[in-house]
Design goal:
The structure is a single chain. This protein folds into two domains: about 35 residues; about 30 residues. The chain is built from two helices and no strands. By secondary structure, it is an all-alpha fold.
Length: about 70
């Protein structure tokens, strides 16, 4: 996968990116983490989940939301 993310690489799927991110968080000792990969299938459903994630993040101050379009 390392070659897939370099310039000129083929890229990775959203699920692969989630696994890579989880490993990076472990490597930098940013534990415990909750990582959730969400595939958007319906705009209204994803908007609700994103809104809730942002609200939850405000409570903890330790939430990162990464969006891929």
């Amino acid at each position: 996968m390392k070659n897939d993310v370099k310039q000129g690489g083929n890229g990775v799927s959203l699920d692969q990116f989630g696994l890579m991110l989880k490993e990076a968080m472990k490597a930098y000792n940013l534990l415990p983490i909750k990582l959730e990969v969400i595939h958007a299938t319906r705009a209204k459903d994803i908007a609700t989940k994103l809104h809730q994630a942002l609200l939850d993040g405000e409570k903890t101050g330790r939430t990162f939301v990464i969006v891929n379009f």
